[in-house]
What we know:
Layout: E1 8-10, E2 13-15, E3 19-21, H1 37-48, E4 53-55, E5 59-60, H2 80-92, E6 96-102, H3 110-113, E7 118-119, E8 133-134, H4 137-156, E9 161-166, H5 171-176, H6 199-216, E10 222-227, H7 238-251, E11 256-259, H8 283-292, E12 297-300, H9 306-314, E13 320-323, H10 325-329, H11 333-338, H12 351-354, H13 363-370
Helix pairs in contact: 1-2, 4-6, 7-8
Bound molecules: flavin mononucleotide.
Flavin mononucleotide is lined by residues 22-25, 57-58, 100, 165, 167-168, 225, 259, 268-269, 300-303, 323-326, 352-353, 360.
Amino acid sequence: MSVLFTPARIGTLELRNRFVRSATNDRMATTDGKVTDDLVDYYGLLARGGIGLIITGHAYVHPLGQGSVRQLGVYDDGMISGLKRIADVVHEFDGRVAAQITHAGRQTQKEIIGETPVAPSAIPYGLQKVMPRELSDAEIETIIDDFAGAAGRVREAGFDAVQLHGAHGYLITQFLSPFSNKRTDGWGLAGRSSGHDQEGRFRFLHEVYRAVREKVGPGFPVFIKLAMKDFVEGGLDIETTISIARRLRKLGIDATETSGGFSNAMENIKRDVLPGKGEAYFRNEAARLKRSVDVPVILVGGLRSLATMEDVVNGGDADFVSLSRPFIREPDLVLKLRSGAREVSCISCSKCSISREPVLKCLALEKESESK
Length: 372
Ligand SMILES: Cc1cc2nc3c(=O)[nH]c(=O)nc-3n(C[C@H](O)[C@H](O)[C@H](O)COP(=O)(O)O)c2cc1C
């Protein structure tokens, strides 16, 4: 049997196979982030498809941390009953589910949150040129509590794990990256620094992890999606992120998923990847991490053939294979691979990602069916 169909663990959580649905913003929540029937149906469809671990789209821990319209939220106790419907439907089909929790920081717009976006430093964000407001000390402490509150809700709703979103330029990465964190206080440069450790910039993530762990308890799996690099001059590099991953492991993190880049850049959602062409584009980073830190590694990014996925796991470069776009096109992909399919049919056009359609779908597939 292929190694991909063998069980494996993330902390205390046993998973039926090595396939992970990487966090994918489903855009199916209500305008204030609550779970809808469509969302429950969609997670049922994914779980029926045999995926080992499903990670929700990034869910915002506070209304000011919302990054896009109809994004899932986890900022209020009133949301627990809706979230429970997702956990229940996934369990009904023997799947396991983690919620990815996030704060967008500067990667949002006034039109979405009704206020000027916040960030570690007042540095505008990429294409949108939004000038954020620098967070005060007290506000940072409050956001740390928001992360803990969100993780507590995730656990109470019956989820199996929580994933911190430490990638794609959202608030956790904004604090980690020297590109976006120019603070001179204890959340930035004034923090003790030794080599690549960057104590000050790590402090926010350290405190978030500590608060989340305290809230959910020692046995509940907490893991992270971590930017291994920023792809910008003066941003995060691999030496720094390996050091961050090592620190997190010492603190007790249960697994690390490797990604990189900002949300508006295409480094983390590369186009035109096909079976045998440009696959597994964060493999080198995952392999470096796997050899440097004794932590379960989840590789995401352009996995398009069974052969590559098996090679990644058999070669010891990662423990789990994580996919996003392919599951939008084929929610039953794992079942197909188990029945003999060798390739993923997603063409990595990324139209699912740039589309503003109210519901997440594969636009390439839609076009193909129309022209038949
Ligand atoms: C429509 C869409 C939404 C996404 N939303 C998220 C998200 O909420 N959180 C996250 O960490 N990554 C998100 N991603 C990135 C994916 O999880 C993944 O890292 C990336 O697409 C590369 O994997 P793939 O080649 O299998 O698509 C999203 C990607 C797409 C296409």
